[in-house]
Write a structure and sequence with these properties.
Number of domains: 1
Strand content: 25-35%
Shape: globular
Mean pLDDT: 94
Order of helices and strands: HHHEHEHEEHEHEEEEHEE
Helix content: 25-40%
Number of strands: 11
CATH architecture: 3-Layer(aba) Sandwich
Structural class: alpha/beta
Length: 261
């Protein structure tokens, strides 16, 4: 066990994690082709009509928000990171795109059923504990019109994380002039993946710990069903291959039930 013990991690760790260095690192990590594949999947699987209203939460630096807006949809993005929202606003202005971008916690999204679809991309689904996840899914259900669609992107399902897992295996990745050094520890008692990172660029250094709550696919399905979603599908990527043990990505699609419970 390392010195970054699980009990020292605050539940709201994400409030201070997503600053410039980690945000810029991940902005560089995914190319336009991967984003386009995600958006193709979202449009096709949710059968989005032209000019659909889409909620992107949390939206990060606006990768999917802007791509959907560029295809003519009306998109609202929520994220807790002021830096990420500022970046998204700058990019939207540069590209001449009209989007609504809000600094806000993922559970604070508006109710009212005004959205045709919602997306939760980039592996943020596991940020909240079980009670927080229930609140988030209830908020999503309240924001989507009856019959509207949902896509959840998740890389911390138990079936993805646990096969072959090795505690504290160090890894380094450099993209441009930013290097990320990371290691993962699994908190088996609380079913949590603890990820310790050091981001560096020249003399700049940012050290922080991220937390993902790990659930089985069956538990995720149960959470969605109890929140009022149906027609669940489970894929391992935007090409539509079925999810299976060891897949490093889970894409869940669902429909808001047509009757409000």
């Amino acid at each position: 066990m390392t010195d970054h013990q699980p009990h020292h991690i605050e539940d709201d760790w994400y409030d201070t994690f997503f600053t410039y260095l980690p945000n810029e690192f991940w902005r560089r990590a995914v190319d336009d082709a991967a984003t386009a594949a995600d958006v193709d999947f979202i449009e096709q699987r949710l059968r989005l009509r032209a000019e659909s209203r889409v909620l992107d939460v949390p939206c990060g630096s606006g990768r999917h928000t802007l791509a959907l807006a560029a295809r003519g949809h009306h998109v609202v993005g929520y994220d807790v990171s002021t830096e990420a929202i500022d970046h998204a606003r700058q990019q939207a202005s540069r590209k001449g795109l009209s989007v609504e971008l809000v600094v806000g916690e993922m559970r604070s999204i508006p109710a009212g059923g005004s959205f045709d679809a919602a997306i939760c991309m980039g592996n943020s689904f596991g940020y909240l504990d079980l009670d927080g996840t229930r609140v988030f899914l209830d908020a999503l259900a309240s924001s989507i019109r009856p019959g509207g669609g949902l896509v959840i992107d998740h890389s911390a399902a138990a079936e993805s994380v646990l096969p072959g897992f090795v505690d504290d295996q160090p890894r380094d990745l450099t993209i441009g002039d930013i290097t990320a050094t990371g290691s993962n520890t699994y908190d088996a008692i609380n079913s949590r993946l603890i990820s310790h990172y050091i981001f560096s660029r020249g003399d700049e250094r940012f050290e922080a710990t991220a937390l993902h709550h790990v659930h089985t696919v069956a538990q995720i399905a149960d959470l969605l069903t109890h929140a009022g979603f149906t027609d669940l599908t489970f894929n391992a990527g935007p090409s539509g291959e079925p999810f299976k043990i060891g897949a490093n990505r889970l894409l869940v699609t669902a429909r808001r039930t047509t009757t409000v419970h």
